[in-house]
Amino acid sequence: MSPKKNTAKDFTIGHMAAASGCNVQTVRYYEQIGILPAADRTAGNQRLYDQNHVDRARFVRRSRELGFSLDQIRQLLKLSDDPDQPCDEVDAIVLAHLDAVDEKIARLKQFRKELSRMASDCAGGKVSQCRIISALATTQPNKRA
């Protein structure tokens, strides 16, 4: 990108990070992996972002908060860049993610049940006789999906 003058609508990386709710390292990372388009540069090689960068970074941050992977976010951003197309693909991505969230909730409920059972089995006393430690040491790990 060619150097440009700083204007009132431009954000330095620090201001862009603050406006988007991301930290500076995250902004650099998203730019490096192509989630954010490359920033313009000043004559002094300082990055300059515009409101579109801020909006896109907010989209990514919110999507990450909801548990979407970077690949899913990349797909969603690509789809959002073509707003006149039907949203079937967006729906499919969200529904697949919802299924994954439901599976995770089911696993967490099982974990909670198991931890609750372990805690109720605890008779107090010394660690050498602790049923929780014993259960953790002898339980076979679950296969991950």
Automatic annotation (TrEMBL):
Xref: Gene3D superfamilies: 1.10.1660.10
Name assigned to this protein: HTH merR-type domain-containing protein
CDD domains per record: HTH_CadR-PbrR-like (cd04785)
Cross-referenced InterPro entries: DNA-bd_dom_put_sf, MerR-type_HTH_dom, MerR_fam, Tscrpt_reg_MerR_DNA-bd
Residue ranges annotated for the HTH merR-type domain, each copy included: 10-79
Pfam families: MerR (PF00376), MerR-DNA-bind (PF09278)
UniProt keyword annotations, A-Z: DNA-binding, Transcription, Transcription regulation
Gene Ontology MF annotations: DNA binding; DNA-binding transcription factor activity
